[in-house]
C-alpha cells in the first residue's frame, strides 16, 4: 500500500492529505536533476583537475628527459669543438708555416661566435640555447676550415718539391720515451734542455731519412756519439744520434725513407735508443709536429699525447 503524505494547513489548523499533481511531480524531478547536475559538475571538475595534474606531471617528466638528452648533445659538441680547435691550430702552426702562407686571423676564426637570439629560441631551456649556439659556431668554423684546406691543397700541388724536403715521417718505428723540453739528464743528474725526441730502439734497428736531402755530417764523438746530420734545404736540418753504424757518407743524396744508419748506444747515453732532432733556420724545434705523412689524424693525436707525457730521458 502506497505511503500517504500529509501537510499542516495553517488556515484550518488541521493536517490534510497531500495531493500529488503533475506540477508537483515536475517540480520534484527538476529539483533532483538540479542536484544531480551540481554533484556531477563538482565530480567532473575534480576529475578534470586530477587528469590535468597527471598530464602536467607527464609533460614535466618528458621535458626533463629532453633537457638531459640536450645536455648530452652539448657535451658531445664540446668535444667536437676541441677537435676542431686542434685541427685549426695544426693548420695555423704547421701546414701554413710549411707552405709559407699567413695563418687564419683569430678575429676571422672567432667571427662565428655568438649571434642574435631569436624570440622563439629565447623561450627555450638554457641547454637548448647553448646547443644551438655551439652548433652555429661549429658550422661556421668547419666551413671556414674546409675553405682553408682547399687553399692549402692548391698550395700543396704548387710546392711538391719543397714538401719532399720537409721532415714528415718517424725515423724508427719505436715509442717515444722522452719528449722535447727540460728534463733531468740520466747521467749528469741535472735539469737540462732536451732538444729532440728519444725513441726506444734495440741496437741495430734501421734508421730512415725523414725527408729528401744531402748528408752533411757523419761523425763520432761528444755526447751525441755517432751522429748524422742531413741538410734538406729550405732551412731544415735533421740530426740522428747514438748510432752504432753508418750506412751513408758525407755528400750522399738521400730520399725520404732511405736507410742511413743503425741505432746504438754510443756517446752520453744510458741505454740503446735513437735521439732525433729537427733544426729549422738554425733553431732546434719540437719534432712532434713533423710526422704527418705516416700517421693518421687519430694516431697523430695519440702520438702527441705520448710525447708530452714521456718523462724518461736516455741522454
Offer a concise description of the structure.
The chain has 315 residues and is of the alpha+beta class. 43% of the residues lie in helices and 22% in strands. Helix 1 packs parallel to helix 4 (126-158).
What does it look like?
- The protein is of the alpha+beta class.
- It has three domains: 8-63; 79-164; 176-309, Glucose Permease (Domain IIA).
- It is 43% helix and 22% strand.
- The protein has six helices and 14 strands.
- The protein has helices at residues 22-98, 106-109, 119-122, 126-158, 160-164, 297-309, and strands spanning 6-9, 14-17, 176-178, 181-184, 191-194, 197-200, 206-208, 213-219, 226-233, 236-246, 253-254, 259-263, 273-280, 283-285.
- Strands 3, 6, 7, 8, 9, 10, 11, 12, 13 and 14 form a ten-stranded antiparallel β-sheet that branches.
- Helix 1 (22-98) packs parallel to helix 4.
- The N and C termini lie far apart (123 Å).
- The model has no long low-confidence stretch (mean pLDDT 77).
The biggest sheet amounts to: 10 strands, antiparallel
Q: Write the CATH homologous superfamily of the largest domain.
A: Glucose Permease (Domain IIA)
Number of helical elements? 6
Shape: rod-shaped
Quickly give the CATH architecture of the largest domain.
Distorted Sandwich
The quaternary state of the protein chains shown equals single chain
